[in-house]
Amino acid sequence: MLTEKDFIATSYNSIESASFEWSAPSNIALVKYWGKKENQIPANPSISFTLNNCKTITKLDVVKKLENNSFSFDLLFEGKPKEDFKPKIQKFFERIEKYCPFLKDYHFKIDTQNTFPHSSGIASSASGMAALAMNIMSLEKTINPAISDDYFYSKASFLARLGSGSACRSIKGEVVVWGNHVQINGSSDLFGVEFSEIHSNFKNYQDTILLVDKGEKQVSSTVGHDLMHNHPYAERRFAQAHENLSQIKAILSSGNVAEFIKIVESEALTLHAMMMTSMPYFILMKPNTLEIINKIWKFRNGTQIPVCFTLDAGANVHVLYPESVKENVLQFIQDELVGYCQNGQYICDEIGNGAKSN
Ligand code: DP6
User: Fold this and answer.
1) Which of 141, 169, 181, 182 could form a disulfide with 192 if both were Cys (CB 3.0 to 4.6 A apart)?
2) Which residue range or ranges hold the Diphosphomevalonate decarboxylase-like N-terminal domain (predicted)?
């Protein structure tokens, strides 16, 4: 079992220059991470589907520099310098320096782009931090070729977590668990692990993301997580996440889609209930979010087609359904849900399997 100390790079050599490129996907949590302790340790375990189409593609150019007392990097977003992203990257480098002491030896050019529209309200922190972490691990592997594949991916997830918690679930695997859970072998608070006992009912599961509100979030996830400190329902919620993870583990293995729906929708509403009951309190759903939820319930009751929803910390709705009912559900979305989306926009995605080197 890898511990925090194992991720401190100690022996490595030096290179003059190198270039790497990785893409990493977004992910959608089924059991949600909401609340954290020091050092990006989650207050409860979570599990997510890795997405396939919504991703960040990041190229990293590395050049050795003479002094090594500060971080040095240029940041390009869609080919243009992007100063407002730099503090986040600076903070990320500071957090991971202990584990990657070679970072100050190099100047970096980070050139990044997303496959989804920037202002879509889809968080790019998970895919963005995962793609950057993969590139940094490629650098580490170049200066220390002895590291194993297993270590490479576990440390990439460990580093991504320090950038943004949910990013550690965007590295490897179709379904990923992050956080200690008694029933999941090898699970860790430090990095995500692949969960592979998946019934064929969940293979190629679909996620159509309905863009209800593309505006800036009212509350950042970081502030949101913080509101779970001294939250009146926090302890019960953290315990419930463990229970729901036990249940969903069994459900994903047995293929029981009806039970899957109950846990996933309840988790989404619980996440929003936590926001509504914190101090200060927030409502991140919009009227159209509720319209969509009600339409989904009505459609499901009327047709018995197993479609359900989940939510992130925002107003957009992720519509989840088996591949076998794709045609029916897309028709339903076209006929009844598109009208609730901003400018009629939605994104068709499905389960994918993690970061890729380009
Ligand atoms: C609601 O991973 O964005 O999407 O660790 O502060 O970067 P930080 O938070 P972040 O939180 C995501 C919260 C969530 C639920 C989830 O993805 O599990």
Assistant:
1) 169
2) 24-181
**Where are the domain boundaries for CATH 3.30.70.890 in the chain?**
205-350
Task: Report, in this order, helix, strand and coil percent for the chain, each rounded to 5.
Answer: 45, 25, 35
| DSSP tag of 89 | H
Which pLDDT tens digit goes with each residue over 279-322? Answer: 999 999 999 999 999 999 999 999 999 999 999 999 999 999 99
> Quick one: which of 307, 296, 283 has its CA closest to 340?
296
Instruction: Say if CB 55 and CB 115 are below 8 A apart.
Output: yes
CATH number, span 205-350: 3.30.70.890
pLDDT of residue 119: 64
Residues 46-93: tens digit of each pLDDT: 999 999 999 999 999 999 999 989 999 999 999 999 998 999 999 999
Between the alpha carbon of residue 81 and those of residues 74, 77, 129, 249, 318, the distances in Å are 7, 6, 18, 43, 32
Place of tokens 């509504």: 276
DSSP state of 211: -
Question: 250 alpha carbon to ligand 1 midpoint, in Å?
Answer: 24
Q: Taking 70 as the threshold, does the pLDDT of residue 216 lie above it?
A: no
Class of domain 4-197: alpha beta
The stretch 168-195 carries a mean pLDDT of 98
Tell me, what's the pLDDT at 117?
A: 78
Which atom of ligand 1 is least distant from the CA of 31? 18
* 314, 217 Cβ separation under 8 angstroms: yes
